[in-house]
Amino acid sequence: MQSLPTIHVLYENPAWLPPLLEGLAAEGFEDVRTVELVEGLIDPLKAPAEGIWINRISPSSHTRGHSSTIELGREFLYWLEAHGRRVINGSAAFELEVSKLRQDLVLNRWGITTPRTVLAVGNEAIIEAARGFDGPFITKHNQGGKGLGIQLFESVDALATWVNAPEFDAGPGGKVILQQYIQAPEPFITRVEIVGDRFLFAMRSNTSDGFELCPSDACQLESRSGPEVCPAEGPPSKFATSPLGADDSLVERYIAMCKGEGIDIAGIEFIEDADGKRYTYDINGTTNYSGVFAEKIGIDGMREFARHLRESVASGSSRRSVA
Q: Cβ(54)–Cβ(21) under 8 Å?
């Protein structure tokens, strides 16, 4: 019987580790090591430890006081790949993770419809960019996560007032995304989970309370006044099943894109307008899963990811992230 390799998990948020570690243990990975990437050093001449490396660094790391994690992570992933290590969601996937502008460019390259998207740096540039939108638009941080920086505007004047206010936060690097606002007939977005070029499941996320929609149980906010999506049985959740399946044309495009861009695991989000047109706007490489939702549908996302990892080892698959 083939022995399983050592697994190294790069992380900065320990709250997200337990489901992954439990999934890996359940699939027989006995040697799992966690590597906190908050500060540290890299010796380019020193080879990294053997094994498979899993990148769990989030674009929202700066909100937890880890302002250096993203830049350190970039160098760390490049170091791993330069030494030939297999990295799950390596440098190519990570660069998409931390840039919504790059996500838009990649999505369009694969023929996937996105909302009109512009990046601006500096107050004057942000206001000038807003003048190019015909109708409502939203802003968000280019390096976001957790719905950071999302604001809805009906006019350029309203935006100008906001960017000139003392509390205005442009996000890391001062890079602000302005994006066409898509009015959905119902208050939800759809998130498609993909693991190893395979459709896992799709779920609807309720947006009545806003766009902080990280599904991880560790991310859930205290319940507010918005309606819950799941049935009354069991704990409440803002997540519900979606009728979307693996044979959906949009899902097929997502899978092709992930395979072509070196994305091993992803949660990809889209919104549908009143005419049924679907606009994709976010690729989450550090995807998480809701425990409540997993119980409802009978699919444990992290266990499925660990199973995929074990099967790829058994088959001798050595696909590496695109450098």
A: no
Four-residue CA torsion sign, 320, 245, 237, 302: negative
DSSP state of 298: T
Q: Which domains does the chain have, with CATH numbers?
A: 7-96 (3.40.50.20), 117-180 (3.30.1490.20), 184-301 (3.30.470.20)
Q: 97: which 2 tokens?
A: 């993770």
- Three-state DSSP class for 56? strand
What's the pLDDT tens digit per position in 35-78? 999 999 999 999 999 999 999 999 999 989 999 999 999 999 99
Question: End-to-end distance of the chain based on CA atoms, in angstroms?
Answer: 32
**pLDDT tens per residue, range 209-257:** 655 545 545 554 433 333 333 333 444 457 788 999 999 999 999 999 9
Burial 162-177 (b: 16+ CB within 10 A, else e): bbeeeeeebbbeebbb
For 136, residues 6+ apart whose C-beta sits below 8 A from its C-beta are 152, 153, 154, 181, 183
Rounded CA gap, 78 and 95, in Å? 11
Residue found by looking up tokens 């996105």 in the block: 114
Q: Which residues contact 15 (CB under 8 A, 6 or more apart)?
A: 216, 218, 219
Sign of torsion over alpha carbons 130, 133, 135, 140: negative
pLDDT at 157: 97
* Sheet containing 137-141: order of strands: 117-121, 175-180, 137-141, 151-153
Q: Each residue of 195-221: b (16+ CB within 10 Å) or e?
A: bbeebbbbbbbbbebebebbbbbebbe
Residue labelled with tokens 């937890």? 64
DSSP reduced 3-state for 118? strand
DSSP state of 4: P
